[in-house]
Amino acid sequence: MYYQLDNTPFMLKSYYKLINETGTDEAGRGCLAGPVTAAAIILPENFKNDILNDSKLLSEKKRELLKPIIEEQAICYGVTHIYPKKIDEINILNASILAMHKSIDKLTTKPEFIIVDGNRFKPYKKIKHECIIKGDSKFLSIAAASVLAKTYRDAYMEKIHKEFPMYNWKKNKGYPTKEHREAIREFGLTKYHRKSFKQLPEQLKFPL
């Protein structure tokens, strides 16, 4: 049984009646620095939470409030960082999927079905899966995974901010903000930047 965020039962496939459904999602795919982070989670069938939603729609305060609730009430969960060196080797899409797979590896209960936020995924072992556009705002397990991925990644970025405070990763979390790009212009790249990404917009010069 799959539960939408309004707690209305919704069957993805009429012939599936599964308890151990895992939702998985990632955070940080569009960042210039830091890892891409994914989480996978299996929630109990009776799990309910009136606050839980897509992590992007929640304030930082609400995400931090939800994190221990999700971790305590989940049947099991896993979180994985894939770091810039690997992202540069295999590209961000493959790194995102790898982070999801490794997070599923960490589950102590074997999932019977996987629901994935977005439209791209690679088969995980022989477990059936379904990709769901904007799944993190439709299904509780994906929303819970999105909150864990976001909070764990934010904590990592705040940690490395102390090493390179001039990029202000504590605030921008590695995303391509104007402030972040100005710091790259001034100080260059660090070991935490993704070298395969376009760090600065192309500067075009037109003859007058």
From TrEMBL:
A Pfam short name: RNase_HII
GO MF assignments: manganese ion binding; RNA binding; RNA-DNA hybrid ribonuclease activity
Keyword Metal-binding annotated: yes
Record bears the keyword Nuclease: yes
Domain RNase H type-2: 19-208
Cofactor: Mg(2+); Mn(2+)
Residues given in the record as a divalent metal cation binding sites: D25, E26, D117
Entry EC number(s): 3.1.26.4
Annotated cofactor note: Manganese or magnesium. Binds 1 divalent metal ion per monomer in the absence of substrate. May bind a second metal ion after substrate binding.
Alphabetical keyword list: Cytoplasm, Endonuclease, Hydrolase, Manganese, Metal-binding, Nuclease
Protein name as catalogued: Ribonuclease HII
Protein source organism: Cellulophaga lytica (strain ATCC 23178 / DSM 7489 / JCM 8516 / NBRC 14961 / NCIMB 1423 / VKM B-1433 / Cy l20)
